[in-house]
Amino acid sequence: MNSDKCSPLLKAARPLDDEVHIWYADLDSTNLKSDFLASDEEERRSRFKFDIHRERFSKSRNILRFLLGSYLSQHPTEIRFAYAAKGKPQLEGFNRLNFNISHSDSHFIAAFSTGSEIGVDIEGRRPPRDEAQLVNRFFHEKERVEYSSLPPELKTQAFYNGWTRKEALIKAHGDGLQIPLDSFQVSLDPRTPCQILSKAPAFIEKSSSWSLVDISQSSQEYTAALAAKHERIITTAHFFDEF
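The chain above was modelled as a monomer; its predicted structure follows.
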């Protein structure tokens, strides 16, 4: 993964067909100088009970609008969203720019591609109180065996590897909960490559060109994954500071 640290440019170069641009941000430290939200987003923001959640939602949507505006050479307020049948957000009208976002607490990630459908997921690394129960309930039977065989110090990372990789694949396809998490297998062990290990779901069986990439930043306390409907992709990382 190539990376650079910069503030977003006024006009960003679009990703190439085999390239995915990844943007990271800390929602609690990003300096928000402008508010581009549409009325429906403002209404969603108002429904959050706590200030910190309202602020994080506002920044995540504003960052997305700012970046889309940069890629499309439009003002962020001009961006219009549509939603697929299962609720996956996309740009209104015909446009080859695909995107997906995820955030967990203050951790935010956005991905952009012109060559494939994509999905991302990010999760903080705090050990869940019910980690083993979640594995037993949602993971593939072979993943449960793998998880059980790992040394204790690797289990929480393995759990988050599995969770983010599964969520990224499902988000890339856009069918949401129609695809059970336990219907396909991904790698869990932090010592092994990030990959799809079984192709049970129809959306994977019908295409041999799915990529799964660990896009975690080793210096940060989160796990993140990218899925793309493309046989081979290049990821380029950017870090969002302020706007």
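The beta strands are 2-5, 19-26, 81-83, 89-91, 98-104, 107-113, 118-124, 211-214, 222-228, 234-239.
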